[in-house]
Design a protein that fits this description.
Largest sheet: 3 strands, antiparallel
Shape: elongated
CATH superfamily of the largest domain: Ribonuclease III domain
Strand order of the largest sheet: 3-4-5
Number of helices: 14
Oligomer: single chain
Order of helices and strands: HHHEEHHHHHHHHEEEHHH
Length: 303
């Protein structure tokens, strides 16, 4: 604890709200200057709290800010850690860290989930409440203490304790990219379709997306999530498992591929024949070969 933190600790001993400061210190490793930012970061929109001016007060704006700051901080950390790695690799590693599943886990392991204020239905139904609150929390740190403290928080409290960046780099978590790569190697057509888009019954403000993945026109996986990207990732994950375990479906996929390729060959042949016929039809009567001309001169009948 620095001298500044020690002085702050002594002052807080005489405050009624000292416990809130001590809880945040255990999470961040430093005391907040303006605790209001952190209180708002942990306030979910489902409670419909309003400030003195009558405006809704929740963590959505801080979540927006924290998302941008988190991208910058994690990008900085990844860039420094993986020396010599190319842009595509660095982008992939940053995505693994800032994805909602990872942020949800971090928030729970830190204990942020116990501090979030929300309706019981929203907290139990929306799997992203904790991850969104973590982003808002980073936004609060940025407004309260600046970029330097955001970096300090991520390095010492997150990357150093809750995330093994090297282990994470070896894990494949982009199921959509993996499925597409698998299909390209086998020359299979893979398409994603949005099946349904609706609002959650438990939380009217949260949209729900349902997507399906088709391999050679055959539905192989479905996924439901709070974004199109999440639903497609879950559909891809399901499809990869489905195709691996259901051999009959995989055989149907290859059969559909062969049928598509045969149909393409027929269409191509018909197109070539049509082009040749069009050429013959459009050719003027004077278009005869030199051989035919010579044969006519020799009095030989052409066939």
């Amino acid at each position: 604890m620095s001298l500044r933190d020690i002085a702050t600790y002594i002052r807080l001993l005489f405050r009624k709200d000292r416990e809130s400061y001590f809880v945040l210190y255990r999470i961040m490793g430093f005391f907040p200057c303006n605790i209001r930012y952190y209180e708002q970061a942990l306030l979910h929109k489902s409670l419909s709290v309003r400030n003195t001016d009558g405006h809704l007060l929740n963590n959505e704006r801080l979540e927006f800010l924290g998302d941008a700051i988190l991208d910058a901080v994690v990008g900085d950390i990844v860039y420094q850690h993986f020396q010599g790695k190319r842009e595509g690799f660095l982008t992939n590693q940053r995505s693994k860290i800032v994805q909602r599943e990872t942020l949800n886990r971090i928030a729970v392991e830190m204990g942020l989930n116990k501090l979030i204020k929300s309706s019981s239905t929203a907290h139990s139904h929306n799997s992203y409440v904790c991850g969104n609150a973590f982003e808002a929390f980073v936004g609060a740190i940025y407004l309260d203490r600046g970029y330097k403290y955001c970096m300090r928080f991520m390095k010492k409290r997150v990357m150093g304790r809750l995330i093994d960046i090297d282990k994470l780099a070896s894990q494949e978590q982009n199921f959509k990219s993996k499925l597409i790569e698998w299909g390209q190697k086998r020359h299979l057509q893979i398409n994603f379709e949005l099946v349904d888009e609706r609002l959650s019954k438990q939380e009217a403000c949260s949209p729900i997306f349902e997507s399906q993945v088709l391999v050679e026109g055959i539905v192989c996986g479905r996924g439901v999530g709070y974004s199109k990207k999440e639903s497609q990732q879950l559909a891809s994950k399901h499809a990869m498992k489905f195709l691996k375990t259901e051999k009959e479906v995989l055989e149907s996929v290859y059969a559909a591929k062969e049928q598509r390729e045969r149909q393409n060959e027929i269409v191509l042949e018909e197109s070539v024949e049509a082009s040749e016929l069009e050429y013959v039809t459009d050719c003027p009567e004077s278009c005869v070969t030199e051989e035919q001309t010579q044969l006519e001169k020799d009095g030989t009948k052409t066939v």
